[in-house]
């Protein structure tokens, strides 16, 4: 959902022509993009917190990990997802097209290729390989580990590293794409 929301809000700014006007103001591009992403980051983290509270209290799902680890690793996932949405909106200026691309490239792969619904080990090898570019794949592994086994760092760290790399890659590509659009 973070991918979709970020792609929509920024693409709407491109669509209306207000993004160019905002980018030529004296504020830094980093601050502007942070202002576009931060509300959705907070919203996503609040949604995660609500899901954990409902899951543990209403459905009695055991939580064996630390809250600190959950918050930190959820933040990495949110940054990777929002960075991907920002990249889509930097590349696509039309809101409707950005919404369609974010659903096809972000939401559906996160739903089907994350390992949440289907066990990835039982899928064809090609699907397993493709699933490695989906940030949700790593977060599902993190969530399963934190809820069922606890803070098992040999499992958590590689997944955290993958999410961190994706967050930096997507965000830096989006920033570069927005900068090139203004210059070109």
How would you sum up this structure, described in words?
This protein has 184 residues and is mainly alpha-helical. Helices cover 79% and strands 0% of the residues. The protein is built from eight helices and no strands. It has helices at 2-16, 18-23, 29-57, 67-91, 95-112, 125-130, 135-149, 153-183. The mean pLDDT is 90.
Count of helices? 8
The total beta strand count reads: 0
- Note the overall shape: globular
Which structural class matches the secondary elements? mainly alpha
| Beta content | under 5%
Summarize the structure.
The chain is mainly alpha-helical. The chain has helices spanning 2-16, 18-23, 29-57, 67-91, 95-112, 125-130, 135-149, 153-183.
Task: Please name the defining characteristics of this protein.
184 residues, mainly alpha, globular
What is the topological layout?
Elements: H1 2-16, H2 18-23, H3 29-57, H4 67-91, H5 95-112, H6 125-130, H7 135-149, H8 153-183
């Amino acid at each position: 959902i973070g991918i979709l929301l970020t792609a929509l809000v920024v693409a709407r700014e491109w669509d209306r022509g207000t993004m160019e006007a905002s980018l030529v103001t004296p504020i830094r591009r980093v601050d502007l993009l942070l202002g576009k992403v931060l509300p959705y980051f907070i919203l996503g983290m609040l949604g995660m917190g609500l899901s954990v509270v409902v899951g543990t209290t209403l459905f009695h799902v055991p939580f064996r990990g630390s809250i600190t680890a959950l918050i930190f690793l959820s933040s990495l996932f949110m940054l990777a997802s929002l960075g991907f949405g920002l990249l889509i909106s930097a590349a696509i200026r039309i809101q409707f097209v950005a919404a369609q691309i974010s659903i096809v490239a972000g939401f559906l792969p996160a739903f089907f290729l994350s390992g949440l619904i289907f066990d990835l080990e039982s899928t064809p090898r090609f699907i397993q390989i493709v699933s490695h570019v989906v940030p949700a794949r790593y977060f599902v592994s993190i969530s399963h580990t934190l809820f069922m086994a606890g803070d098992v760092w040999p499992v958590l760290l590689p997944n955290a590293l993958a999410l961190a790399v994706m967050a930096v890659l997507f965000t830096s590509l989006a920033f570069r794409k927005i900068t090139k659009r203004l210059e070109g």
